[in-house]
Design a protein that fits this description.
The chain has eight helices and no strands. By secondary structure, the protein is mostly helical. It has one domain: Homeodomain-like (Arc Repressor Mutant, subunit A, Orthogonal Bundle), CATH 1.10.10.60. Helix 3 packs across helix 4. The longest helix has 18 residues. The radius of gyration is 16 Å and the shape is elongated.
């Protein structure tokens, strides 16, 4: 299970790296719902795909795929905290075309499925209300 991090921390990792990754960061902040492939990210950084993959890992300590998955899941967690948001809507909002792919990625990052995460949040809110 990967420890909790917030979206700002993941963006800060790129902002601290260098100007090429800053280009990627600006794009991702402007287009948060657009899916981004490794080759697309490489093109934004003006690097060849294989070199970009190595470059990204050297500058951030993680692969682009892992970083991007975590970023999307952190955004999903924020959206799932809204009781009115459905899991399938959140899946599309963070750039996943198929809910099963989203659920698999969510489970990989958090250790639980999105619906369970939503239930845990609801239970936490109820406990806070009852503790008052």
């Amino acid at each position: 299970m990967i420890p909790d991090v917030d979206v700002d921390s993941l963006f800060q990792l790129l902002a601290a790296a260098d100007w090429r990754l800053e280009l990627l960061l600006r794009y991702m902040q402007a287009e948060p719902t657009e899916p981004l492939s490794l080759s697309g990210a490489a093109a934004l950084c003006r690097l060849e795909t294989t070199y970009f993959s190595r470059y990204f890992r050297i500058h951030t300590g993680m692969t682009f795929s892992d970083w991007y998955r975590r970023l999307r899941i952190e955004r999903a967690k924020v959206l799932l905290s809204d009781p009115r948001m459905k899991v399938d809507v959140v899946s599309g909002a963070v750039g996943y075309n198929h809910i099963t792919t989203f659920e698999r990625a969510f489970r990989k990052c958090t250790g639980i499925c999105p619906a369970e995460y939503k239930r845990l949040l609801r239970a936490r809110v109820r406990r806070r209300i009852l503790d008052r």
